[in-house]
């Protein structure tokens, strides 16, 4: 038995909200950034979209609908900090789905965070504590300072959710990490029936069934593509390989997912 991909949803936000902070919160940001000699740019909050991770999570739950009701594990991942630094969005999502799940957030790993989250979900599954996991990958761009990756790329407000359910079949193995050259060799040797979803920073290597994520995303890249293109995996029997290269670290990351059998379908 292994956790397999049973559902997905993607969200792109183009609307904007007013800056939500009072003077106390703005002072918090000023004091925080001053400790690290980072220039404080308050006007970025007034000009930015100001879409919080709570708002993105709500949009994902609405898009998933009845595909997810009472997960055993909720894993929230991101690379760019939330607009609201003091909110615990993973616990909020857990509460919205009944409050019975193990919930946690994984960050400070760049775009590796969702890959690590899949490893965490697999550990819960192998321990017998997880038959259904919900993975959320969130990205927002409103920050009170200039971040070259966020603002010069530029990134946009995006989010993806994956529903993973226990299904018959072999465990796909833990996420892989290596150099871009090593990833290129992996892609060149990929089985021709395997669907490859490659992030925007994968520059070398090719596979017969490769789909590339568009620019404008970082942590959400391949997960959003997977969610927006269900035809890639719904009837796929050879699995999906997701991969990207983190422009901040230069490290390549990859993981294999298998789609869950549809009701009545024989195990794969």
UniProtKB/TrEMBL annotation:
The name this protein goes by in its record: Uncharacterized protein
One Gene Ontology MF term: acyltransferase activity
